[in-house]
Amino acid sequence: MSLNRRQLIAASAAIATVGLPAQAQSFPTKPVRLIVPYPPGGSSDIIARAISQLLSESLGQPVVVENRAGANGNIGADLVAKSAPDGHTMLLCDVGALAISPSVYTKLAFNPSRDLRGVTMLAYSPHMLAVHPSVKANNLKELVELSKTSDLNFAVTAVGSAPHVAGVAVQRATGAKWIYVPYKGGSQAVTDTVAGQTQVIMNGMLATLPHVQSGRLKVLGISKKTRMPLVGSVPTLAEQGVSGFESGTWQGVLVANGTPPAIIARLNTELIKIIRSPDVRARLTGQGAEVVTMQPAEQDALFERERKRWGEVVAEANIKLD
């Protein structure tokens, strides 16, 4: 008799735990919370819902996605940072945005470098610079020139978010002039730009591409050093004069510092297996995200590089929040 899909996943999970310490073999002992610190519909939320059922089947416990939005993702991140360090509460977020927070917030309730540990990166999605179709600009140069003669509202997921800081970097490099309009998440920022309430947006490709494909937004460039095959006709911002520029959303999973290494290793193994599975990879690739996985130490190192890189932009632009 053939095994069904659930039985196959359970069998492979059992094999994967052979040789792991008993602590990791017995984990999890209760439902797992997957905290997404943004509203539904954004890049992190899309990925969380793409993997939650498979992770539940692999771990043998329910995996519940919880949206805990606010303060540019810091409310949900703080919740995980202060949770029991046992792997039962995980954070799935834009790791780049999290790395920016210590530079932006003068009174951050937690220290991301000290209080959180990386499990694995899952995906990278470059930012798309897009405008409402009514905007009379078809490339970055035309947009910059238009910004000097017309009021352009630039929708950002939140003050100090990765798209906001990336927009500031482009503005400083080109001399563009626009007015930043902050939101509590990428989905509402996109919705208002589609409706024409804001004219310009920089947002993760994963959440923005469907609106470009439908014609509700017009893309002017992507924030990657090389073009994306999925949208090969769209030039990079680097090609359009912002030399070497690259930004985007780095979706990854983190847990509270102090979580046993064996449990982190177990989660790393399971998450990488799921995100690399053909169905999930194809789904994300078709929406403009690249599957990118890392070992915990690699993710922690990337976090620190991003913190230093964007901290310099934040300091130059004097972006500060209480």
Q: How would you describe the overall organization of this protein?
A:
It is a single chain. This protein is of the alpha/beta class. The protein folds into two domains: 5-125 and 248-317, D-Maltodextrin-Binding Protein, domain 2; 126-231, Periplasmic binding protein-like II (D-Maltodextrin-Binding Protein, domain 2, 3-Layer(aba) Sandwich), CATH 3.40.190.10. It contains 13 helices and ten strands. Strands 1, 2, 3, 4, 5, 6, 7, 8, 9 and 10 form a ten-stranded mixed β-sheet that branches. Helix 1 (5-16) crosses helix 3, helix 3 (43-59) packs across helix 11 and helix 5 (95-104) crosses helix 13.
Short description:
By secondary structure, this protein is an alpha/beta fold. It has helices at residues 5-16, 22-26, 43-59, 74-81, 95-104, 112-115, 140-147, 162-174, 186-194, 205-213, 261-275, 278-285, 296-317, and strands spanning 32-36, 63-67, 89-94, 116-131, 153-156, 179-182, 200-204, 218-222, 248-256, 290-291.
Quickly list its features.
single chain, 322 residues, alpha/beta, D-Maltodextrin-Binding Protein, domain 2, 2 domains, ten-stranded mixed beta sheet, 13 helices, 43% helix
Backbone shape: globular
Looking at this structure, what is the CATH superfamily of the largest domain? Bordetella uptake gene, domain 1
The value of Rg in angstroms is 20 Å
| Largest beta-sheet characterization | 10 strands, mixed
Q: Point out poorly predicted stretches.
A: none
CATH topology of the largest domain: D-Maltodextrin-Binding Protein, domain 2
Instruction: Compute the number of helices.
Output: 13
Give the termini separation.
62 Å
Query: Class of the largest domain in CATH?
Result: Alpha Beta
Q: Helical amount among residues, as a percent range?
A: 40-55%
Total number of β-strand segments? 10
Mean pLDDT: 91
Please trace the helix and strand order, writing H or E for each element.
HHEHEHEHHEHEHEHEHEEHHEH
Query: What proportion of the residues form beta strands (DSSP E)?
Result: 15-25%
CATH structural architecture of the largest domain: 3-Layer(aba) Sandwich
